[in-house]
Amino acid sequence: MELKKPLLVEGHAGVGKTEIAKVLARMLDTELIRLQCYEGLDASTALYEWNYPKQLLHIRLQERDGVTAAQAEAQIFGEPFLLKRPLLQAIAHQGRAPVLLVDEIDRSDEEFEAFLLEVLSDFQVTVPELGTIRAPARPHVILTSNRARDLSDALRRRCLYLWIDYPPFEKELAIVRLKAPGASDELATQIVGLVQQLRRAKLAKVPGVSETLDWAGALVALHASRLQPQIVQETLGCLIKDEGDLRKVRTEIEAGRLAVGSAA
């Protein structure tokens, strides 16, 4: 944080990249502002838009009261009609510097990435009708990527870098115990043991920590005290998110090649 540079976090899906921003915001006791990236995301959607329905309503009300259209239109480009999107929310935020999470930046295109790079360099934006808005306090920026595409060297050079891998057995077990306290020690150990086995298998969609926690929550809700082949088969949809993987894992369990109920 002292370096005042964005942090780029990469890793497999479901390993907890987004959680870093949430934890940081809680630690700093500040607001978390999230920009979820997707294909086709553009500057206006990420920065600001004008509230056209509100502007139109204002013009009609003013005209009804005898104000000319030109006079009414001169009033509609101000703060009350400005819809601040995540980037402008972070820049204009008052008080303690917020945490800005730019989630899954790899889903956006190169054009938006270049625009984001410009915003992150100055933390100011010019709204033609209002002038230049500068950040009173530089936001703490975290970008996440699942590596759906390669990010530019320019963006990487601007950021600090963190890679998050799948956690080892003991660390994942500690996470399950923390996030699913209703699971017995035996059940938690067996859950993590089976998940770790699956990660060593050749699956199209390898389960992440988020899937581990979803599965643990489902098993706790079903009052399972330990893993049995039947309940594993019934709840695999919480863990496996690909039809081919599902068939493969079911076959492995039925053949006894996956050790249901072992520690690793």
Short description:
This protein has 264 residues and is α/β, with parallel strands linked by helices. The protein has helices at residues 17-28, 43-46, 52-64, 69-73, 86-92, 110-122, 153-158, 169-179, 185-200, 209-221, 229-235, 243-254, and strands spanning 7-11, 32-36, 48-50, 82-84, 99-103, 124-127, 131-134, 140-145, 160-164. The strands form three sheets. The chain has a five-stranded parallel beta sheet, sandwiched between helices. A two-stranded antiparallel ribbon has the order 3-4. It has a two-stranded antiparallel sheet with strand order 6-7.
- At the first level of CATH, the class of the largest domain is Alpha Beta
Instruction: Assign a percent range to the helix content.
Output: 40-55%
DSSP E strands, number = 9
Question: For this structure, what is the CATH homologous superfamily of the largest domain?
Answer: P-loop containing nucleotide triphosphate hydrolases
Write out the strand line-up for the largest beta sheet, numbering strands in chain order: 2-5-8-1-9
Structural class comes to: alpha/beta
CATH architecture of the largest domain: 3-Layer(aba) Sandwich
Strand content: 15-25%
General form: elongated
Rg over C-alpha atoms, rounded to the nearest angstrom = 24 Å
Please give the alpha-carbon distance between the first and last residues.
37 Å
> Which parts are unreliable, with pLDDT below 50 for 5 consecutive residues or more?
none
Question: What fold name goes in the CATH topology slot of the largest domain?
Answer: Rossmann fold
Main sheet attributes: strand count, strand direction, barrel closure? 5 strands, parallel
Number of helices: 12
Count of separate structural domains: 2
